[in-house]
Amino acid sequence: MRLYEASENLTDRLAALRLLVHHGLEGADAAMRLFYDRYRDNPLVLDKWFAVQATMPNRETLQRVEVLAAHPSFSLKNPNRVYALLRSFAAANPVGFNRPDGAGYRYLAAMIGEIDSQNPSVAARLSTAFRSYRMLEPERRNHAESALRLLRESERLSRDVTDILARTLDG
């Protein structure tokens, strides 16, 4: 926390914040509030605030991602914000995304379905997080495949997402 408070630039402040949050150190919540209050009007930096939380390497991160998806500063209509939260979670948090119970896969698949109606290209890009699911051990692989198949059964998927799902599942 002393490093965070003594930081004179964003790079150092963000590094200290990441250490506090990812290691569950004392002061992490206070630093998150300070960072948000300082940068809430700077969209690009605020994206980093979302990404730090989405990449916390633990099983409980999914619950935090769900809460952050309802945060007033989050919008599914903002591609950068979607990537900062959801893509960071799926692509840079193997512990949280690949939970043994499959909850990370189900959540991302549901969000892809929701985003697809607004922005098919963003939804398709998120769908690529599943491309390597066949390399997972059987239990996780089955959960991921089940989430993908459920998503594919949606009535109104865009051509972009349908194409990614077909290549992922049939490839």
Short description:
This protein has helices spanning 2-6, 10-22, 28-39, 43-54, 61-68, 79-92, 94-97, 103-116, 120-127, 138-152, 159-170. It is mostly helical.
Task: Explain what the structure shows.
By secondary structure, this protein is mainly α. The chain has a domain at 58-170. 68% of the residues lie in helices and 0% in strands. It is built from 11 helices and no strands. It has helices at 2-6, 10-22, 28-39, 43-54, 61-68, 79-92, 94-97, 103-116, 120-127, 138-152, 159-170. Helix 4 runs parallel beside helix 6 (79-92). It is globular. The N and C termini lie far apart (47 Å). The model has no long low-confidence stretch (mean pLDDT 97).
Radius of gyration: 17 Å
Main sheet? none
State the order of secondary-structure elements, H for helix, E for strand: HHHHHHHHHHH
| Percent strand | under 5%
Give the rounded overall mean pLDDT.
97
Q: Indicate the overall shape.
A: globular
Note poorly predicted spans: none
Helix content: 55-70%
Class per helix and strand makeup: mainly alpha
Distance between the termini: 47 Å
Number of separate helices? 11
Number of strands: 0
